Structure formats: C-alpha cells, structure tokens
C-alpha cells in the first residue's frame, strides 16, 4: 500500500496548485489520480500482505487462522499469484525490483530462492529463528531454503512425485512397479506391450524441467555445476547422466506408450490420460489421488478406476541406483523491503508450525515439510501413501540451486521440446552450448 | 510551423484586421489540442527514446550492479540470434496468412452486407460481435475447441488423436484462425465503407455496355475502391504484425510460435533483461516503420483521408 | 420474381456469416455449462452431458474475478471518458481551425495507431515503477487513453465535419465567443459522434491485454483479460477451463448488449473514422 503514497501526495499537490485550469482534461487526470491511488490507513494492527501461489483457498484460511491466533498483533491480506510457476516468479521479481514494501511474506517456489536471495530481495533469518524454522524439516526442502549458508526461506510444504500405475495393467504385463529395481525402461516396455500410455509432463513449461531434472539426478548427474560462479556456472548436462535422461525422454516420446498430445501435457493432461481407457502409468504429484476420488463423486469416472490405482516410489533410471524423485512445494520468505519485519516473521513461524503443517496438509492436500506431520493419524488416513511421500521428499533431488535458475531451466525446456526430437547425445550437447551462451549474454532466451 | 511563418510573412493589408481573430483562433486550436499532444508524447515518444538509451546497456533488473555500457552490442546479439529470425518468420507467416484470408473473406462479407435486404441488420449486428469480443477470450475459445481433451473439432472432423498444438504449422493454423475470426469484421466494415463510395452510375453504365459481373468487379468496383482497400490493408497488416494475445494464450510460444511482440514482452517483462529487451523493442518499432514506409511509398497508399488533413 | 430469388440468395449468405460469427460463442456458452469435474474426456462432445450452474457460482464467489471485473469496468469507463474529452477538443480544433502543429498532431495520431505496444512495455514498466503508479488504475488508464486517442480523434473529426457550422457562426455573430459557440451549439450537435466514439474506445480498453499483464501485479488493478489466466481448479495443477469460459461469457455480455443496442452507431463510427468519402 505504501508504494502508492508518493503518487497520492504528488497528485494531490498538483490538484491543489493548479490554478489556471482551462485545461479541464489535465485537471480531470490529476483528480482521478488522486482518488484512485488514495488508500485508507485506519490505524489498526498492521496488515501483512502475503503473496500466495494459487491453491484451493488453504493458504487464505491459514492466514485467517494465524491472524486470529496473533491476538490482534497483525492482520493478513492474501494476494494470489498466477498458476504457472514462471509467471509467479515474474510477478514477484517485478514488484521486488521496484523495491515494493507491500511484499511482506511470499510463497516462493524453491528453485527461485537463490535468484531472489542473490538479488537482495529476501530478508535472511537470524541463527535463532533458523534453528526453530528448520527443526524437523525433511532433508529435501531443507537444501532449497538457504543461500550462501544463510536461511533465507522457511520450508512450508513440500511436494514430490510418485509413480502411479493401474494395477490391472501391471499384473497383465507381469511386472511389479513397487519392486526396488523398477526402471523407466521396464515401464516403457510394459506399457508398449499392453498398448497403454505413460502420463508425463512434457509441455514446454517448468513441469517438463521437473521431469528432466529428476531423470538426470536419478542417473547420478547434474544439469549445471559450479553454480556459485553465477554467469560462469558450468553446464553439466552433456554427460552420461544427461544422455541417459535424453534417451528415456526420446524413447518414450517415440514409443507407443507416449500419451496423445504428450508435447502439450501438463499435470492435468497426464491425469486425464491416466484415468482414461488407455491409462497405464503416470508420474505425478500426490494431489492426483484425491482428485480422482473427487471425479468419482462428480460422476466422471467409476469407483473401479480409483480402486485400480496403485502407487510406488519414482522409477529408477539405472536398476542399481535408487531414484531421486522430483521436489516441489513452497517456501515462505520475507520481503527485504517490508515495513513490518516482526509481524511478517510471526506469520511465517505460525504458518510453518507443525500444527499448521498438519492442518494445511489435510485442508489443501499439500504434503507437509516437517517429517513428524506424517505420523498424524488423520494424515495417515487421508494419505494412505504417506510413508512413501515422506521418504521421497527426504531423498528428493532438487533442481539446480543457482541465481540464474530461470535461464538454466528455460534453456533446457527450449532445447528439449518437442520431446519426439530429443536424442542422445545431440540434445544434451545442444543444451550445454545454448545454456552457456545464454548465461554469457551471447544468445537470447 | 511553416504555416505560421507563411502567414506572418504575408504582409497583406487586409490581414491586419483579421489577424487578431486569427491569432485567437490559433491559440484556441493549440490549447484544445495540447492535452492530446502532451499525452501522446508522454506515453509513446518519451518511452521510445528511453528504450533507445536502455538498449545501449547490459542491464538486468535483478542484477542492477552489473549495469554496463555496451554500445550497439545488444543489437548485434539480437540480430545474429536465430530466435529473432524465427520469431520474425512466425510473425510474417501469421501476418501474411491472416491478412490475405481476411481480405478475401472481408470482401465477401462486405458484398453480402451491401446487397442483402432481408436480415440486413441481423448480419450487421452479428458481425460486430467478434469485433467487440476480448481477444484473450477468443483465444481461449478456439484453443479449447481444438484441444484434445476438451475440444469438439477432432471428434467432428474424425481426426482422432491429432494434436493441433503438437507442431508448428498446425499451431500456427489455429492461431491464425482465431485471429481471422476476430478481425475479419473490422476489415469487412472498412471495405463496406469503400464499396458504398463506388458510384452506382458507373456500375449501371458498365451493365449497359454488357460487362459481366466479374468484369464489373475488376474494372469498376476494385479500381474505385483502391484507396479503401489499401488503407484497410495497411491497418490490418500493422495490427497483425503486433499479434501477442493469441500465441500467448494458445501455445505460450512453444513449437516456434513466438511472435516479435511476444519476444519483446518476454525479454522486458519476464526476464527483466531491459538492455537486450529494449533493443528488441526498438527493432520491433523499426520493422513497423519499414512496413508503413513500404505501403505509403511502394503501394502509394493515400493516407491523407485517414489523417483527415485534407 | 428474379429479384426475390437474388434477394433470398444474399440472405442465405448472410445466414452463413451469422453462423461463422456466432458459432464460437455458442461453444463458449456450452463449455461454461459443463461440469468442471467431468468435462475432460478422450471423446469430448460439443454440448454438456449435464448442464450445471457451478462454474458461474464459482466465478462470482471468486474475489479474483469480481475484483478484476470491478477494475475492468472502472478503468475502461474512466479511460474512455478521458479519451473522449481530450479527443473532442483536438478533433474540434482539427475540423474547424487553422493552427500551427495541426499536421504534426495528425501525423502523431497516425503513428500511434500503428505503434507496436510491445515496444513500450519495458520502458513504461520502468517509468511507472519510478513514478509509483505501477499496478494502479491510473497506470493503465494513461496508456489506454493514449492508444485510444487516434481512433477517437479521427472518428470525431469526421463527425464534426458533417455538422452545419453556419449555426456556430450565427452564434458568433450574435456575440458569442468561439468557446461559447462550441459549448452551447456544437456540443449538442456533436453528441452522437461523441457517443459512438465512446463505444469504440470502450471496446478497446475492455479488450486490452498486453499492457494489462505487464503493468499490474495484484487484484488492485488487474483487469479481466489479465485475470483469466489466474484461475485455478481444486488444486494448483488443475486447469479451470470451465471457469474461464464462465468468466468469458460474463465479460462478453456487455459487448453483446452494446452491439445489439448500438449497431448502427458502431457501424457508422468504424466506417467514418478510417475511410471517409
């Protein structure tokens, strides 16, 4: 709110000073400016603005709860960001670059933490708060919350993908997706043999990067190394691990197991294909299970489809190396230009408490960042796969932690799309060259 | 400016009497048009100059400390990058395809609107609805019509699992279709206005001379409408050239469907890369200048009527 | 007889045009009544299997949409009002007076009509955040009214030329100043032209998308076209096609009403502005 104060004052001054008003239009402009940007400050408790990623209203209810629990210390105003992760970043960057003091707390996708922290957009937590905010947090989300050995964001909830399969398809193919050595290759072979499809996220968007990164790190590699060097970070995707990932993506895209419209598929398209008559397998976030149950209630699919759904840990790339599932979720960070740092900190502490971790998981269906939440009986009842989720989040392989994450991710998305054209070793080589050119400013993204 | 000097320089004796009146008219004219003039300068001319300055720097909003003067380097980077030329060709394809189809379709619509008697106001009302509808809405409507899991098009045409948004040409087809649907009314109304101007007597005379309908169209109607056609073409071409909403909503630029406006938006707004982004902005502006120049000089499009300075 | 046959033939083509123009609207309405939970299918149909009102209920209880609707209405109305006032002065001057800079003004309007807005998003964003009007109504109103000015000026100056100016002179002979003659005589005569211009300008502001997504970031100023991509389903991953369509129907209703009521005026405005005889 305070960002518009200068404009308000300026417009009002103009209105007051304009004596010779034969330019009616100019005066009208100034008047409109004054009334439009005027905002009330009724002197109550400070209002903390919390920029949230869209959910089903869970964060809004949590905000109300925390404000109520604060005994009038603060109120919370929730502002919703776009659905798409890249667009969320875009909105926040624009405001923060404008040194906007209205961003008190923000729900931040983990890969963007490094860029924001490096640009000085985030207020770091001190050692004492770090201790309390990270207590009991699973290993995966913990790695994404710090920059240069300082905690800059508090893990709020974490997400991971599981392998979902139709039991009928798996048994017809004679395979066991829950077996520890279940690989992508086996899955593609089984699905092709049964004329069923594998749901993945391969549209040109952040979700595709999630898949590619999971494949590369599961093969023991990395997409980029030496990230501290910023622009001089070294692309590492042209490696045996990157080649393995490219081979799997290309093989699937060119196999009969490729879902229709694979190159446009996001989470929902994958789920739709998986629930349909040709559904066989899918990698996706845990929300798909409750969404499938809702579809039954709405009459979209039969109960037998839900009964047929099984789940397992993310498939391996190499049979003898355990997989590193994707990591998603949301960290809470405090804007560096906030005028209410204490209240913002209180809100972050409240929202990330174990009690609220559990409440939010039950309300919004998003998995908790703290391990103890998964022992709660209500959580175990709502999430029959709670243990696999917890284990997957703990072992997850985060996306590269670099201030140039957006450049890195977009380079990968562009060069790997469409998936039918992905080949090893050409595609990873091209990505590495393109990425380093982009980082050096020699190419446009 | 020249006007003032000429008048002041002319020492006609009669002028002295009216000059008071004339001077007050001039002052009033200036005063009345000043707000429009100032607003236009403030919102377009000034930012454009600002963009030229920014384009000489390597400047990213998320890395303000790294701002350095690089001269024309950003222009070299943009113009040697295949992305610029891919986006240029995409914009070119969409522009040419949509304008060509719209011209033919717009002509047909204009003819029907001109000749139709029963249902005239219905057609004229109906055709205005695509004109008034929000482009983003049009983009969503067409996207969902072609999208595999929600659209009817594949069912109706028996295309099965064909994915329209899976490759470049089919994506461009849907984008262009939405563009055509939305903007044909505009061009057809401009053409209708031109059609009404064609003197009826000339048509009648040609008829008496035994000209066929096709000959009348070619010899009488079209030549008389040339000014209207060229103006409609120029406006639609430049409008199509800045296409942004449709690709943004339908493909987000995937499969080489990104346009030049989209590129400028992405560099400036998404990547907050104001240096290279401003270079793209300036180059985009220059392409528009070139197109307008080609129309005015090359095709001798007469804009004096449009400008109303006759 | 022959004439009637020809006439029927033209009417037939007219019906085809109507189908072409209105068919996508039917699809939009149909989608907006589909059940959000079950409309996805591997064999989608044109019409809903069951018609539900849920999407409209959701959209109107979603503050995202209601605030965007409010912003859209106010921004479009205010920008239209200001653009019409500013353009009216300029158009009057152009139609009636000789003054230095007239050519420059007309050329500038022409240049702006052709201007690629995308070339401005970077500098405007930077200017607006320095001025503190980023993400405010006024931050959108200023560029909207600017880009609406050329069409407004042309349309109105075309209308103004058709006004019988002898009446103004008569008033001036009676001792009225140029300003009084303008206010008392010309404004009432010019009202229809002004009104037509206002409708066309409103369409432009109602439609605008690029600047709306570039210069806003919260529900304080975000307009409907920009907000459509912000809808979300039951979870962050579910894409809310049916909600988007319900919202689209809602924002198309004012367009349809304006077109139905003012068809003649819009027609006259569009054709008068660009190519006049």
Automatic annotation (TrEMBL), chain A:
Pfam families, sorted: SBP_bac_1
Residues making up the signal peptide according to the UniProt record: 1-40
UniProt-listed InterPro entries: Bact_solute-bd_prot1, SBP
Query: Compositionally biased, Basic residues: which spans?
Result: 10-20
Keyword vocabulary terms for this entry = Signal, Transport
Region labeled Disordered — which residues?
Answer: 1-20
- Which family does the UniProt entry place this protein in? Belongs to the bacterial solute-binding protein 1 family.
> Under which name does UniProt file this protein?
Extracellular solute-binding protein
Organism annotation? Paractinoplanes globisporus
TrEMBL record, chain B:
Which sequence ranges form a coiled-coil region, renumbered to this chain?
none
Task: Assign the protein's first listed, main location to one coarse class.
Answer: membrane
Which part of the chain is the ABC transmembrane type-1 domain? Answer: 88-295
Q: Which family does it belong to?
A: Belongs to the binding-protein-dependent transport system permease family.
Membrane-traversing stretches: 28-53, 92-114, 126-146, 180-198, 271-296
Q: What is this protein called?
A: Carbohydrate ABC transporter permease
> Which organism does this sequence originate in?
Paractinoplanes globisporus
**Where in or outside the cell?**
Cell membrane
What keywords are annotated for this sequence in UniProt? Cell membrane, Membrane, Transmembrane, Transmembrane helix, Transport
- Per the record, the domain of life is Bacteria
The topology of this chain with respect to the membrane is: Multi-pass membrane protein
UniProtKB/TrEMBL annotation, chain C:
Q: Where are the transmembrane segments?
A: 12-33, 73-92, 104-125, 137-160, 181-204, 241-262
Q: Does the keyword Ribosomal protein apply?
A: no
Instruction: Give the chief site where it resides.
Output: membrane
In which organism is this protein found?
Paractinoplanes globisporus
User: What does the UniProt keyword field contain?
Assistant: Cell membrane, Membrane, Transmembrane, Transmembrane helix, Transport
Q: What is this protein called?
A: Carbohydrate ABC transporter permease
Report the locations given in the UniProt record.
Cell membrane
Q: Indicate whether Transmembrane helix appears among the record's keywords.
A: yes
Family statement: Belongs to the binding-protein-dependent transport system permease family.
Against InterPro entries, the record matches this protein to:
BP-dep_ABC_trans_perm, MetI-like, MetI-like_sf
Topology in the lipid bilayer is annotated as: Multi-pass membrane protein
Residues annotated as domain ABC transmembrane type-1? 69-262
């Amino acid at each position: 709110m305070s960002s518009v104060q200068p404009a308000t004052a300026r417009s009002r001054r103009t209105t007051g000073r304009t004596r010779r008003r034969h330019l009616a239009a100019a005066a009208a402009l100034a008047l409109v400016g004054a009334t439009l940007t005027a905002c009330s400050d009724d002197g109550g408790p400070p209002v903390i603005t919390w920029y949230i990623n869209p959910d089903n209203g869970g964060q809004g209810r949590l905000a109300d709860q925390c404000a109520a629990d604060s005994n009038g210390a603060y109120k919370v105003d929730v502002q919703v960001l776009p659905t798409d992760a890249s667009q969320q970043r875009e909105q926040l960057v624009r405001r923060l670059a404008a040194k906007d003091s209205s961003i008190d707390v923000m729900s931040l996708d983990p890969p963007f933490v490094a860029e924001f922290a490096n640009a000085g957009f985030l207020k770091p937590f001190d050692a004492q708060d770090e201790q309390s905010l990270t207590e009991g947090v699973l290993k995966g989300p913990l790695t994404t919350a710090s920059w240069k050995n300082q905690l800059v964001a508090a893990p709020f909830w974490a997400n991971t993908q599981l392998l979902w399969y139709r039991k009928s398809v798996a048994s017809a193919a004679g395979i066991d997706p829950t077996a520890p050595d279940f690989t992508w290759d086996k899955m593609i072979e089984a699905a092709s043999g049964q004329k069923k499809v594998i749901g993945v996220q391969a549209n040109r968007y952040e979700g595709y990067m999630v898949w590619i990164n999971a494949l590369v790190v599961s093969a023991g590699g990395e997409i980029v190394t030496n990230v501290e060097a910023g622009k001089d970070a070294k692309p590492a995707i042209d490696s045996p691990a990157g080649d393995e990932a490219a081979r799997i993506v290309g093989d699937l895209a060119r196999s009969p197991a490729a879902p229709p419209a694979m190159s446009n598929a996001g989470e929902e398209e994958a789920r739709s294909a998986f629930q349909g008559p040709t559904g066989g397998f899918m990698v996706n976030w845990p929300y798909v299970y409750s969404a499938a149950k809702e579809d039954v209630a709405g009459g979209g699919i039969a109960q037998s489809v839900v009964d047929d759904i099984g789940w397992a840990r993310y498939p391996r790339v190499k049979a003898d190396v355990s997989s590193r599932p994707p990591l998603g979720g949301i960290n809470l960070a405090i804007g560096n230009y906030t005028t209410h740092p204490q209240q913002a900190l209180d809100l972050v502490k409240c929202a990330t408490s174990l009690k609220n971790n559990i409440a939010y998981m039950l309300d919004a269906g998003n998995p908790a960042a703290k391990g103890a939440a998964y022992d709660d009986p209500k959580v175990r009842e709502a999430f029959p796969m709670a243990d696999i989720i917890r284990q997957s989040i703990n072992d997850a392989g985060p996306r590269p932690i670099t201030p140039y994450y957006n450049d890195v991710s977009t380079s990968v998305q562009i060069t790997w799309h469409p998936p039918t054209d992905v080949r090893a070793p050409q595609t990873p080589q091209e990505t590495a060259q393109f990425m380093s050119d982009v980082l050096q400013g020699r190419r446009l993204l | 400016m020249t006007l003032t000097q000429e008048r002041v320089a002319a020492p006609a004796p009669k002028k002295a009497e009216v000059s008071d009146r004339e001077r007050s008219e001039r002052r009033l004219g200036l005063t009345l048009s000043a707000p429009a003039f100032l607003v236009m300068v403030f919102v377009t001319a000034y930012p454009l100059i600002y963009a030229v300055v920014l384009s000489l720097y390597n400047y990213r909003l998320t890395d303000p400390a790294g701002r350095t003067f690089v001269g024309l380097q950003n222009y070299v980077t943009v113009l040697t990058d295949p992305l610029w030329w891919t986006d240029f060709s995409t914009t070119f394809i969409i522009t040419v395809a949509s304008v060509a189809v719209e011209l033919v379709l717009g002509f047909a619509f204009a003819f029907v609107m001109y000749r139709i008697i029963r249902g005239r106001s219905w057609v004229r009302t109906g055709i205005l609805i695509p004109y008034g509808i929000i482009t983003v809405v049009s983009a969503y409507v067409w996207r969902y019509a072609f999208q595999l899991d929600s659209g009817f098009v594949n069912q109706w045409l028996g295309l099965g699992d064909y994915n329209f948004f899976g490759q470049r040409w089919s994506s461009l087809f849907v984008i262009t279709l939405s563009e055509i649907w939305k903007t044909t009314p505009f061009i057809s109304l401009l053409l209708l206005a031109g059609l009404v101007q064609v003197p009826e007597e000339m048509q009648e005379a040609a008829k008496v001379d035994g000209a066929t309908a096709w000959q009348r169209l070619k010899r009488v109607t079209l030549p008389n409408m040339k000014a209207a056609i060229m103006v409609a073409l120029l406006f639609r071409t430049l409008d199509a050239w800045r296409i942004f909403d449709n690709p943004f909503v339908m493909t987000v630029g995937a499969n080489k469907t990104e346009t030049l406006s989209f590129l400028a938006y992405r560099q400036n707004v998404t990547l907050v890369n104001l240096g290279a982004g401003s270079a793209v902005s300036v180059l985009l502006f220059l392409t528009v200048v070139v197109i307008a120049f080609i129309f005015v000089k090359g095709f001798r499009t007469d804009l004096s009527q449009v400008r109303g300075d006759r | 007889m022959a004439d009637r046959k020809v006439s029927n033939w033209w009417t037939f083509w007219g019906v085809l045009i109507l189908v072409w123009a209105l068919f996508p609207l039917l699809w939009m309405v149909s989608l907006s009544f589909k059940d959000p939970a079950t409309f996805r299918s591997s064999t989608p149909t044109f019409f809903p299997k069951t018609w539900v009102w849920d999407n409209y209920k959701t959209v109107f209880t979603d503050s995202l949409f209601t605030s965007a609707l409010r912003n859209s209405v106010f921004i479009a109305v205010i920008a239209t009002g200001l653009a019409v006032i500013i353009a009216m002065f300029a158009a009057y001057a152009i139609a009636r007076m000789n003054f230095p800079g007239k050519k420059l003004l007309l050329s500038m309007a022409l240049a702006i009509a052709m201007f690629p807005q995308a070339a401005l998003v970077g500098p405007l964003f930077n200017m607006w955040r320095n001025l503190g009007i980023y993400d405010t109504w006024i931050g959108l109103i200023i560029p909207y009214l600017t880009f609406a000015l050329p069409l407004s000026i042309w349309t109105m100056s075309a209308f103004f030329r058709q006004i019988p100016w002898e009446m103004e002179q008569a008033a001036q002979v009676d001792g009225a100043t140029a300003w009084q003659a303008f206010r008392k005589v010309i404004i009432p005569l010019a009202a229809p032209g002004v009104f037509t211009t206002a409708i066309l300008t409103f369409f432009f502001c109602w439609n605008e998308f690029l600047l709306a997504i570039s210069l806003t970031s919260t529900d304080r100023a975000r307009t409907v076209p920009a907000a459509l991509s912000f809808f979300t389903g039951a979870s962050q991953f579910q894409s809310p096609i049916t909600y988007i369509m319900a919202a689209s129907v809602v924002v198309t209703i004012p367009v349809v009403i304006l077109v139905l009521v003012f068809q003649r005026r819009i027609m006259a405005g569009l054709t008068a502005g660009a190519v006049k005889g």
